[in-house]
Structures are given as C-alpha cells and as structure tokens.
Amino acid sequence: MDKAALRLTLFGLLFTCVNLAANKKQDIDIYSFHISSTITNRYATTVITSRVKNLLTQSQEIHFEVKIPKNAFISQFKMTIEGKTYDGVVKEKEEAQKDYRRVACLGKSAGLVSFSAVGRTFEDFKTSVTVAAQSKVTFELTYEELLKRRHDKYELLINAQPMQPVADFKIDVHIHENPGITFLEVKGGLNTKDLANAVSPLKLEKDAWVNFYPTRDQQTKCDDCSENGLNGNLIITYDIKRLNQRGDLKALEGYFVHCFAPTDIQYISNNVVFIIDRSASMSGKKMEQTRFAMLKILSDLAEDDHFGLITFNDQIQTWKPELLKATEGNVEEAKMFVKGITSGGNTDINAAVLKAVDMINKHHQEGSASILILLTDGDPTTGETDLVKIQKNVKKAIDGKFPLYCLGFGFGVTFAFLEKLSLENNGVARRIYEDSDADQQLQDFYKGVSTPLLTDVQLSYQGVADLTQNTFSHYYSGSEIVVAGRIIDNSLDSFTSEVTALSKRTERVYNIEIPIGKLNSDKPGQKNFIERLWAFLTVKQLLEKEVTLQGQEKYNAKNKALELSLKYKFVTPLTSMVVTKPQDQQIQVVHKPKEGEKPTISPTSSYGVPCIVEGGAAAAGVIIFEPAEPTSPPLKSIRILKSSGNAKPLCYDVHRVAQKFRLLQNDQSEFSMNGQLETVGGKGFSQIAIHYKTHHHLLLSTSEISYFDGQDTVKFSWDQGLTHHETEHVSLILRSNEMDVTMGNIRVVILLHKKDENFLWPAVWQQPKDAGFTGILGEAAISYEEIPGSYTPTLKLKNKEVKTSWVMVTNYRFSFAPVIGCWLVPFNVVAQRELSDFTVTQL
After folding, report:
1. First and final C-alpha spacing in the chain
2. Distance (Å, rounded) from C-alpha 594 to C-alpha 416?
3. Taking Cα atoms as reference points, which of 377, 380, 378 lies closest to residue 434?
4. Is the separation of the CB atoms in 502 and 368 below 8 Å?
5. In whole angstroms, what is the distance from residue 498 CA to residue 484 CA?
6. Residue 262 phi/psi, 5° resolution?
7. Which 3 state secondary structure label does DSSP give 835?
C-alpha cells in the first residue's frame, strides 16, 4: 500500500508554510485547509486546520508535518477521527517521558518526537495517524508568538505549498492594533498575476484584514503553481501609529502591556569594535562573505561614528590601535584592511574580546553608545580555551558598561557558549547560516543595532508585580521595547508609568498617567491576550536568564518558567506535549529543543522497549526488579535486569546472604552507594547511603532523608513537596516520592514505593562511559548467544553454557512499575565474582 503524506509547514517571524502531500493515485483528499491568524497588540495566535479523507477501501497512515517559528510556542494540537477528538496534553518534560516509558515498557506502541531545526527560523514537527477506509481526520494546531518589530515593521510571511489543489482553501489574517495601523502591504509570489485577485487586503484605522481564497483552478495556473497546486509566498507587513511618544499602554483583567518605541529622538553616534575570526576554519566562502559584508557595513557607518577592527586567530591584529571617526578617508583605509584579511591558524577568542574591551574603554566618546560585535565560526583552540573562564574574564572586563553581540557562523561553534557570553553582557547571540546570503545576514544584523536612540532605559510602574524585563542597555531605531506585568493594587484610580533614559548626554523622562477605565482593552469578551502575552514573554525571558544564573537563582528561574509553561500549555524546552492516538495506535511525546540542540530520541533496549533511557547509563543500563506474582518464588532474593546486545534482556537473583550490599562504586569518581535490604516484607531496601569524595554523605530511609556536606546537616521529608538543594558538584532534587541525586558526573534516583510496606529502589540514570564501576549495579551490559535445539533454554554466556528460564519481573525503577520478561541466569556467571564480594558491614 502506498503511503500518503500530509504536510503543513509554518515559517518566519510568523511564517506559515503548508505542504500537504499525496501520491499520484490521489489516495487522500485534502478537502479543506484553513490558516487563521489573529494579531492583537503584536501578539499573534495562529490556528491551522486541515481536513483530510482517506479515499481507499482500506485503512492507511496519513502524515502531518508542521514547521513552526523557533520563537513560537505550540499551545494546542488535536486530531478528530470519526467524531472523537484526541488532544495533546502539555506536561513537565520528565513526566511526559514517564508516560512514554510506561506505555513502551508495557509493550505498546510509543513514539518520542522532538522538534528539529530545519532552517533559520523554524522547527519541524511531525506526527501521523492511521485512518480507516473512507474515513476522515481533522488536524488542528495552534501556536502563539509575540511579533518583534524590526526595521520599522512587523512581518507575517505565509508560504503555501500543498501537493494537490484543495477545494476549500482559505488563509485569513486579522490585525487589530489600538493605536492605529499606518500601512499594510501584501506582496510575494501568491500576490502576482493570476493569483492577484484572490488576495483581498483591507485596512481601516485600527483593523486590517488579508484574505487569500484561491479557486481550485487558480491553484494550478499561477506562476509558481503546477498540477500539484500552490507553491509560493504571501508576505504581509505593517506598522502602527506612534503619536504618543510615551508608548502604547493597555490593560485587561489585571494584566498590562506597555509598548515603547519613541521616534522624536536624535540619533546617538556609535563606538563599535568589530572582532573578526580569521582562523583556518574561516577560509574559503566564509571569509569571502565576511569581507563582502564588512565592506558594506563600513560604507553604512555614519560620519559621527567611531569604529575599530580586530582580526584574530592565534594572534591579535588591529587595524588601528584606537577607535577612529568614520570619515571618508578612514573608511576607505579600513576597507583596504578588510580586503587583505586572510585565514589561517588557531582561535583565541579570549584575547581578542579582551583587546576589544580595552580599546573601547580607552577611547570612549562621551554621549555615544558603545557596542562590541564578535564573529566566529568555532570554539577557542588556543590561549584560554576553558569556556567558563572566558565568560568570567569577559564579564569582568565589560562590567556591564556596554553590550557584546556574538554571531556564530555555521554549526561548528558551541552556540550555548556564545549565548551565555552575550546574555551576561546585555547582548544577544545570533547564528549566521552558511548560505549564499550569509553576507546579507551579517548586514541585516548590524542594521538592527547600528542606530541607537537611547541608552540606560528603565521603565517603572506603580502598583504592579511580576514585571518582565524593564531595564535595557540600548533602544535602537526601528525596534520596540515591550514590558508586561500584573496590576496588584486594585485601589488605583489611574495607572502610572515612568520611563527614564539617556539620549546623548541628556536624561529623558516619559511619564504616563491614564485613568483605569480608559486603560482596559476596547475589545470586551475576547480571550485575555494581554495575560497570555505576559506569560509568553515571561517564559521566554526566564529561559534566557536561566542560562546566566547559578545555584538557587537558576533553579528558581527554571521552576517559574516551568510553572507558567504548564499553566498556559506552552510547549517549551521545559515541557512536552503527550499526544495519545486512537486505541492500538501509539502515543507520542513532543519536545522543543534549544538553539543548536539536536533532536533527542531516547535509546531503546535491544528488543525495542525503551526501559533504559537516561544519559550515559543506557549503555551500562542496570534496572532492579522484584519477582512478579504469582509465579515468583518466595521473596528470598531480589532480581536484577541487564541490558544486552541480544534480542532479550538478562536478569539474575541476588540472594539474601547478607543484609547490606555495595550497590555501586567508582574509585576514580570517589563515589559509592550502599543499600540495606528490608527485614520485614523483603521487597526492597529500607536504607540507602551515598558517599561522594570525603565529606558528602546522603542517607535515605523510608521515613526521612539526611544530607551532610562536611559542615552542616540538612534533613528532608518525603512528603515536603518539590525541594532543591545544591552545593559544589552536588545537586539534590526532591520530587513526589523520588530523590534525584547528582554527585559529580554520576546521577542516581532513589524512589520510595508505597506497596504494602514502604521500600526504596535505586535507579542509575547517568554515569561516565568506559569508567570502572563495581557493585551489584555496576556490571556492564553483556552479550550472549541462544543455543538452538536444547530441551531446556540454554545461553552461551562468557564462554559458558548456562541453563535458563524465561521469567516475568516487576520493574521498580519506575514509579508505575511495569512488568517485563527476561532470561534468568546465575549471578556468579554474569558478575564473574561471588555475591559475598559485594557485601559490606556498614552503610
């Protein structure tokens, strides 16, 4: 049976690209396809609805693919099949992983899907569903995004690329901006010649509409069309009136948003130093494009600007030792320097950036705005190469005085390093893609930061809480500052705002006082877009801020972002969407990656069940089980499962010859974990002790937890709720009935199970690969051969023939305790040691 594919693609700042594919036999009919995008106060909500019918007389799988903007959050996805709707549910990422493992470990179908970066501005999301003969399915996806103002406009880009003409094809865009809309422009390949009359733009004072309703005939006869239907773009750009230089202030149901973009300000001259990587990896087209872009950027410098050029490999070269004014003569001389840049050698980022900081500090021009722009395509390979030390050195040198912008050319650089380097110094990091227009990407970035109007911008409000970022080092022409928050003082008759900033040497103050009655939205009854805008912006900024924080502050920022993501059902890097399909079909867990992060698919065991999934532990994977009722022997032993290179896992009994065992030990890491078996029910451990180096000691029992760090003792209770405790190289996270322990590069989770009698079970989640571990949990994965023709099942294991039997065991490594099968073999054959070698006298 040929498979049909249904693909929807969304792209851009708010870029929607749809690709609905079917084979030549037209096995499916995409009989309806709608995109509906609503933008209110720059906050965009887009809903894509596609209705498809299976034309075959047998069931078939229909695929759904969506590319969404990297800056957007999916907030809803659902499928409707034969009148029943299946909703995606947003959960904390680890909770979603548990759902996935619960289904997978029970032998049911499960899929773990990650967004993957498929371009500069969008991510790929795919799913599929089996549809019965002659039946229909409706896919509906919603995502949300705050549109950023760039180069004096907001842009909505829609790309339509279905693989067949669609009878009911509609794209509707509605824009509502209370200050008024100054212009609306529609262009692109779908607005030309035969398709021009299918586009209907309309602009009133505060509202604008764009409708695109091509007929089936038009979908095959336009310039970019074929028998497979549309293939082209609609580009919608607009801007708003800015009569009030103090900004646009709105509130609704206890939340406010302030959009600030004054235009009555004189341009501030720039002090800018360009730091250009000329190491060997920049050779060829990268360097050619960099030279071309720099020549254009130099031509665009204003005469009042002062600038400097630094190139670096393992040596630092400056065009001039100081910043010079951008006169015609200086610019021409700088261009000659740029034309002569050649590549070769290693990469000393630390020395280059510190040299640039020193240049600006020595030659700062009063009343101007200073910025640094670093362009590199790789990690440091000479000089100071420790990324953390470089970040500390640069942060100390800049000391908050001016921003550092980092441009990562291609994918050879650790983007997280550049991101933190920028964020810690009031800048941003951007990736420059190795395409034919890389030089234009560089020019566009500089254009956005080349015209500062204000510095040291601070926005303050009366009677509010939970503000988004309200201090900014620079405000640039053509951009916009957006601040949102909660109004907590219900007694206010009016709402006041004050903006203070520097324009050249002059302090500027913008005051707003608006009666509460006039402040509220003029669109009653609508969904509170301001509250969702606030939540969206808060989560975005917390995720950025978390990169620069440490310890408790880092934990608090991450936890707050997670809380809001769950409340507002955003799929973020901290959450996942669990998509449950019709009976007998799989569930899928959808993740959103960070910039530069590769898609993560949990590894599976050798027989296809992903019961061992976390970090480096998957290779050595050890899972402890209890024998399953009713076929299990009396509880005189515990049972351990081993991953293997074969079709089925191994397990072996650990008989109760002693009460205390060495569970895991690694002398190199100075880590050990011991456990004491229960004496009553015998189902697990009553106590587990973890030791790290000489002074970190963690003791867990079924009633309490105690941690000693060499000086102080901290006690926890299992029922005290989410708690995080962190010291140097040690992290303890107490969740519901589980203690997540990271000591150095080893991570274990201790679960408290409440079944008849309470007991503990340890789970090794992460450990260094190729490290020598001992203990009853420390044995590496083992391969074996099944010997055919034996009356009793026999395995060839470590050059020995071993009689075995197939047993079912309960996996207490997970809170939901799935039952799974394994080959039961003797302990001493697997470990090549006696069990007495792993007994201890003290925990």
Report:
1. 61
2. 9
3. 377
4. no
5. 14
6. -65, 150
7. helix
Predicted pLDDT at 387: 92
**Helix 387-398 and helix 349-362, axial crossing angle in degrees, nearest 10:** 0
Look at residue 636 in the predicted model and tell me its pLDDT.
Answer: 62
Read off the DSSP letter of residue 244.
Answer: -
Q: Classify residue 401 by its DSSP letter.
A: S
Distances (CA, A) of 627 to 174, 677, 760, 841: 61, 15, 15, 26
Cβ burial of 201 (10 Å; 0-12, 13-18, 19+) is: middle
In the prediction, which pLDDT does 616 show? 31
Tokens of 576: 């996942």
Region label for 345, one of left (φ > 0), alpha (ψ between -120 and 50) or beta (otherwise): left
For the chain, residues with pLDDT lower than 70 are 1-26, 100-119, 223-224, 232, 520-527, 583-588, 591, 593-636, 641-647, 656-658, 679-682, 766-771, 779-781, 816
* Cα-to-chain-centroid distance, residue 708: 35
How would you class 16 by CB atoms within 10 Å of its CB: exposed for 0-12, middle for 13-18, buried for 19 or more? buried
Give, in degrees to the nearest 5, the angle at Cα 237 between 525 and 592: 70
Q: What is the DSSP letter of 618?
A: H
Cβ–Cβ under 8 Å, residues 778 and 665: yes
Please, which residues have CB within 8 angstroms of residue 746's CB and are 6 or more apart in sequence? 666, 669, 671, 764, 766, 767, 768
Q: What is the DSSP code (8-state) at residue 781?
A: P
pLDDT at 606: 29
Q: Please give the order of strands across the beta sheet that includes 60-69.
A: 4-7, 60-69, 122-131, 116-117
- Residue 17, pLDDT score: 41
- Tokens in use for 344? 């070769």
Q: Are 31 and 173 in contact (CB under 8 A)?
A: no
Q: pLDDT tens, 384-401?
A: 999 999 999 999 999 999
Q: Do 384 and 312 contact (CB within 8 A), yes or no?
A: no
Residue 609 CB partners (closer than 8 Å, separation 6+): 104, 105, 107, 820
Domain boundary assignment for the chain: 4-89+111-241, 270-450, 617-838
The pLDDT score that the predictor gives to residue 603 is 33
pLDDT value of residue 487: 93
pTM for this entry? 0.71
Instruction: Give the per-residue pLDDT at 243.
Output: 81
Q: Is 4-89+111-241's fold the same as 270-450's? A: no
The rounded radius of gyration (Å) of the Cα atoms in the chain is: 31
pLDDT on residue 728: 80
In angstroms, the CA 339 to CA 769 distance is 48
φ, ψ at 700 (rounded to 5°): -115, 135
For residue 675, which amino acid is it? G
CA distance 130 to 549: 45
Positive or negative CA dihedral for 173, 176, 177, 183?
A: positive
Distance, CA of 551 to chain centre: 20
| CATH of the domain spanning 4-89+111-241 | 2.60.40
In this predicted structure, what is the pLDDT of residue 24?
Answer: 38
The HSE-up count of residue 188 (CA atoms within 13 Å, CB side) is 21
Residue located via tokens 């549809």: 131
Cα separations in angstroms, 116 against 119, 139, 687: 9, 20, 43
Q: Output 115-120 pairs: Cβ under 8 A, ≥24 positions apart.
A: 115/68, 115/590, 115/591, 115/592, 115/593, 115/599, 116/593, 116/598, 116/599, 117/70, 117/593, 117/595, 117/596, 118/67, 119/11, 119/67, 120/431, 120/433
For residue 818, give the amino acid letter. Answer: P
In total, the chain counts a number of residues equal to 843
Topology adopted by domain 270-450: Rossmann fold (3.40.50)
Pair 688, 624: CB distance under 8 Å: no
The number of C-alpha atoms within 13 Å of 637 and in the hemisphere containing its C-beta is 16
